[in-house]
Amino acid sequence: MKCFYRLGLLLGLMVQVLLRPAAAVAAPFTPGNIVIARVGDGAAPLSSASTAVFLDEYTPAGMLVQTVAMPTAVSGNNRAFTVNGTSTAELALARTADGQALVLTGYGAVPGISGISTSATTDYARVIGLVGANGAVNTATSLGGAFSGGSPRSVASVDGTAFYATGTGTPAGVHYVALNGFAPTQLTTATFTSRVLNIAGGNLYLSTATSTYNRISQIGSGLPSTAGQSVTGLTGFNSTASVNGITPNNSPYGYYFADLSTTVVGVDVAYVADDAGATGGIQKWSLVGGSWTFNGIIASSATVQVRGLDGTTNGTTVGLVATSPTGLFVLSDASGYNAAPTLSAMPNAVASNTANTAFRGVAFAPVAAVAAPTITNFTPTSGTAGTTVTVTGTDFTGATALTLNGVAITGFTVVNSTTITFTVPAGATSGPIAVTTPASTATSTASFTVTLPAPTITSLSPATAVAGGAAFTLTVNGTGFLSGSVVSFNGTALTTTFVSATQLTAAVPASAIATAGTYNVTVANPSANQGGTSAAATFTVTAPPAPTITGFTPARALAGTGFTLTINGTNLTAGTTVNFNGASYTGTVVGSSGTAYTVTIPAAGVPAAGTYPITVTNAGGTSAALSFLVVAPATTVAFEDFEQGTKTAYAAATVTLRSGDWTFTDALIGNQFNDKVNQIQGARIRGGSIAMNFDKPTGAGVITLNAAMYGNDAATSFVLEISTNGGTSYSVVPGAPTALSTTLTPYSFTVNQAGNVRLRISNTNTTAGTGSRINVDDITITNYTAPAVPTITSFTPTSGGPGATVTVTGTNLTGATAVQIGTFTVTNFTVVNATTITFVVPSGTGSVSGLISVTTPGGTATGATPFNLVSATLAANALPGLAVYPNPATDRMMVELPTTAPATVALRDLTGRLVLAPVTLRADHVLRLPASLASGVYLLEVRQGNDVAIRRIEKN
């Protein structure tokens, strides 16, 4: 390495010595700045005549630093140096491969020579300009007879001691000449339109306008210096495959090769300045599978035609500088290998030409040779990723790379010429440290030891457990885990499985979580150098939560009958005890979620009907009590009690019950907690009905059914219907309630229907599938019995007028539907019981007398004697000649009859009530008025034979 350094230093010193003949020396260039080859001094418009050339140094921000003028006359060994003022193909600028000088080519002619591009080399030799990092200019090198009658265009050099040149004219091609020489060697004889030479990756390249050579070609192999070299077009650069609608135009000038891929040998990305007008710009190509592939373009415009180009590479980021005739552009691309460039269009120029001048080639400023670096020490000598390491030595200024065990470290800091600091990156491995500067690379004799950081725990899954729980697998998430890492729980190492560097699993036994509390979890790597033991994470063991009961199945049970009880709730763990009516039972957990538990309740546990409290107890405590209903077995069997059927869905279907087959439409057999039933289950009707599919042949006397709202549904009711024609049609039985309550209530209906009868019970909510639900249970139907024939044995009084109350006695009077006096119908009567009916004689009757008859479902009974109906209107005209006086009277009055026949008299008040019972009228026709009779108006009823007369009297 030291030999190479000394050789490079010697060559650099030789260049500086050879540059000394320059007439004037500019200030040294600043590394990182940009140099533009400019044609024209601005004094006059540019023309095709020979024109002065200047090298302008700019900062990356576009600030002009200095201008180096190329000689315009012979001075010592230096020749004049000019170019065609309007030829855009001339005056390419390049930096030597070692980065220590700039090279360019032109004419050995003073300014103002017309037709300079077609001049013979015997008149004006083509010359090479070499400009050192210190600004010194050398134009002593001639290209002899090369490019006679044509234009010199581009120069490339490894270190400034020899040059490759190309141009047009005779002979054209690529020529090789030593520094200060004048007899070049023609390396190629192939015919092509030369543009720009470039040295990259130890090979010589040329851009051309000739598609035969794929626009960019390689000259020979390596860095040739003898004649007969081949020109090989690089595969792929003639591609017309478009990217995002953009097709490369392949009019290349300047270009820059970069090495961005770790899997492709040598340079693998090329940036090419293409001046093809509005579709030009900086193309990006990548070497893929041995062929160059177009990745895209940083587009220019018709007024911005870039030709000059240079670049630098830092990691996978490429910095680029480019020139058009009018502007300087500074940009970068961080997209890396085989990817579209970061930018899609050229940025704004950072600097622009002035009037009567033009920009041509561009290159980064050369850097003077520097001394080789050395490494004397570094501290610390070991550490984890993230450790800051300080490297001391000499000549670190301008360091371009730092590696640890051969792997590049990004982001190192050159503190000064003797100190560099860097941070050990993640994934680094132990090894020597190397520092690279433009001069060479220094490598430490000792190795830096990369130690692993302590493992860390970021989370536990689960992070908690319930005391007394079962064994489980603990997942530990974190960083820095190794094969062989061990998880400890409360200081006890667990059987551990390595999953990845960020995850371990460990088997936690049940004994580790037997008691509530907080426990430390740690991870230990196999050794201290491998990170040691992590900080502790906390695992919490909680007391088990108390169990709860939310419901149970079945919802109720029969007294004296054992059953299996399923309790629903939470935290129903193994070992839970069910406390039922003061007795304890152990059962079985259903599933693994702790939400269901089954237990067998023996018949002795439910000896009688009633409400039984249920609680559950386990390690978490005792639940609140929930009541369980035990019902007594039915003492009488209903026509249908729904206890023998099964239907769990609302879909229409036929259900076989104890009484026979029933059709359930939007209805089911309910046995849940919210079902209101007498025993275990009953019918639940939603928006439909239940109907008998068979006839009861013995008719129906009284129908009784039990009904209630399901749960707490909004109130609705039911409709009871009967059919006597096999279900062809139904008639409504009146008397159903307007709305049901939430308590199961019996409702009775007297129908007295003989023959075949079947029932249908519907919900008044008729919206199928939705709405309020009702429960129906225990339907009883008495057989139809023909009613007994009624009889009338007596009635009192035997006569009376409007308002008189008549009491009829007899037998089988229940259910009376009509009462008549002769042909007169009594509309208002009361059936007191089976032997008594009362009615009030209405006013406005037209009959005088008649037999009383009573009609019931069993028939009609008629009294043996007539009831004399006294009508005030008719009786007033009866017995003409009847006289009653005095009227008013105090204690007696005379009743004179029209005939001598015997008569009876009675006295009623104006409502028809009897106040003086009928008596036979005395022979002297005197009627004595009782002293107790109050003063007022009365009706005197005189009966003689079949005639009844009524007179209005007044007692004083």
TrEMBL record:
<feature type="signal peptide">
    <location>
        <begin position="1"/>
        <end position="26"/>
    </location>
</feature>
<dbReference type="InterPro" id="IPR052387">
    <property type="entry name" value="Fibrocystin"/>
</dbReference>
<feature type="domain" description="IPT/TIG">
    <location>
        <begin position="372"/>
        <end position="451"/>
    </location>
</feature>
<feature type="domain" description="IPT/TIG">
    <location>
        <begin position="789"/>
        <end position="870"/>
    </location>
</feature>
<dbReference type="InterPro" id="IPR002909">
    <property type="entry name" value="IPT_dom"/>
</dbReference>
<dbReference type="InterPro" id="IPR013783">
    <property type="entry name" value="Ig-like_fold"/>
</dbReference>
<feature type="domain" description="IPT/TIG">
    <location>
        <begin position="454"/>
        <end position="542"/>
    </location>
</feature>
<dbReference type="Pfam" id="PF01833">
    <property type="entry name" value="TIG"/>
</dbReference>
<dbReference type="InterPro" id="IPR026444">
    <property type="entry name" value="Secre_tail"/>
</dbReference>
<feature type="domain" description="IPT/TIG">
    <location>
        <begin position="546"/>
        <end position="631"/>
    </location>
</feature>
<protein>
    <submittedName>
        <fullName>IPT/TIG domain-containing protein</fullName>
    </submittedName>
</protein>
<dbReference type="InterPro" id="IPR014756">
    <property type="entry name" value="Ig_E-set"/>
</dbReference>
<keyword id="KW-0732">Signal</keyword>
